[in-house]
Structure formats: structure tokens, C-alpha cells
């Protein structure tokens, strides 16, 4: 039985949304296709009507995650104050405590290196984010803007990874706070 195009597109989007959330929460290997389908309210069978493989879903999930990152960036005021607000929002306890709703880079970077089929999409999208951050915010010097953007993003992502990795909440808060101070 064929489903209407709109219904098929809605199911595809739902699978992608739940997969992206679950991958960010538990990693690629920590989530099965069956669990993703169950989270969408669908059975395992229709998965292959939407994706050829779990790896294809992983790639699309990474692309969707970066789209959210770019959307959030573009929704931020393109001023020095906007950049400071962006950093503060990113390096917050709320973001740290909700990896499934947060940044793909901070949640999945360490796993990407083990996933050759995902690495290209991740690389392309990271370059796009760096270019967008470079162009969106004012920097002290046009000559060093790209380097400043790379340092800012690497510091933010690294701080989030470390803040999530430690078991001491006060130390985790300190990591976020100190990196925030260094960037704003």
C-alpha cells in the first residue's frame, strides 16, 4: 500500500528527528534502528523505505544537527553583543544537561572519527559553520576573523565535551564559566 507523499515525508522527518536526538544522547553505537523506530511510534520494517542503512541515517542526522546550529547562529544578532549571547547560551548548564537537544559537534565529534561514511558530511558542515561564524559576527580584524572563529568554536565545543565528561558538577560549571569568560 502506498502512502500519500506528505505522510511519507512526515514519517521521514520524524525518524530523522528522533534519530538525531537519540544519537546525540547516546552516540551512534548506543542506539539501534529498532529503538529509533520505536521512538517514532513506527515498526522496524518501514525504516528501509526511508533510508538505505543506519549509516545513511547517521549522515542525515549530522546534516540536520548542523542545520539547527546554523539556524541558531542566524537567529542571533550579528553584533559583538550577539556573539557574547551566543557563547553564553552555548556554554550553559541547560545545554550541557540536554545533549539530545544540543550541539551535534559536542555530542558526536569523538564518534565521527570512527565513522568514515559520516566524516565527509561532518567536515563540510563544520567548514560551513566556521564560515558562517566568521561572516556573521564582527571581529577585531578581518585578517584574523577566520582564525578567531575557529578558536571560538573549538573552545566552545571542547568546553562542552569536558563539562559533560566530568562527574563533579561544580567543576563542570567552572569549565563552562572559565571558557565563557575567555570568549566574551
Structure, described:
- One of its GO terms (molecular function) is DNA binding.
- This is TetR/AcrR family transcriptional repressor of nem operon.
- Keywords: DNA-binding, Transcription, Transcription regulation.
- This protein has 184 residues and is mostly helical.
- It has a single domain (53-183), classed as Tetracycline Repressor, domain 2 (Orthogonal Bundle).
- Helices cover 74% and strands 0% of the residues.
- The protein has 10 helices and no strands.
- The chain has helices at 5-26, 33-40, 47-50, 54-74, 80-90, 93-97, 104-112, 116-136, 145-165, 169-183.
- It starts with a helix and ends with a helix.
- The model has no long low-confidence stretch (mean pLDDT 93).
List key phrases describing it:
single chain; 184 residues; mainly alpha; Tetracycline Repressor, domain 2; 10 helices; 0% strand; transcription; Homeodomain-like_sf; TetR/AcrR family transcriptional repressor of nem operon; DNA-bd_HTH_TetR-type_CS; transcription regulation
